[in-house]
Amino acid sequence: MLSLAEAAQADDFPAEIALVLSNIPGAGGLERASALGIATATVDHRAFNRDREAFERAMDEVLRINQIELIALAGFMRIMTPWFVRRWEGRLINIHPSLLPLFKGIQTHRQALEAGVTEHGCSVHFVVPELDAGPVIAQAKVPVLPGDDEDSLSQRVLAQEHTLYPRALAEVASGRVSLIAGAIARA
Known about the structure:
Oligomer: single chain
Radius of gyration: 17 Å
Family: Belongs to the GART family.
Low-confidence stretches: none
GO biological process, one term: 'de novo' IMP biosynthetic process
Protein name: Phosphoribosylglycinamide formyltransferase
Mean pLDDT: 97
Number of helices: 6
CATH class: Alpha Beta
Organism: Bosea vaviloviae
Catalytic activity: N(1)-(5-phospho-beta-D-ribosyl)glycinamide + (6R)-10-formyltetrahydrofolate = N(2)-formyl-N(1)-(5-phospho-beta-D-ribosyl)glycinamide + (6S)-5,6,7,8-tetrahydrofolate + H(+)
């Protein structure tokens, strides 16, 4: 989130980070965003007694009130319902710590090490109802080095995430990359 917020401060960046919305009251990102002058809001998912769609409808209301046009998920560790994904289709992106379609879900660094791959990385993708299955906007690769463990590999991937996500967001926000009929379109 901070990488996106910092990139958006550039005069030529094609998007404004207008709101940081969290499902966890007191999340560290809220304080950081507020310090940067970014509006913040919280919709605590626990208040909805496992009714995911009711939670997402409340989130959607906050997004609508704040006139949000594009969502860049950053550390939002909840699987979205098809209702929310379809409502924001083509305007909902996420970053994932693997070279999709490889290693969906969690513990991607462990999965990469166990698979014995020589390259790992991260992907920015449009969110679709299927988990980590949306069309890939951009990827960054890192080598898997002899002696790597989950932590060392994670740190190299994270460094790439911090540069890749702002670039991908700029591509989508500027209209140079879009989602049309379930596929990537490049202008």
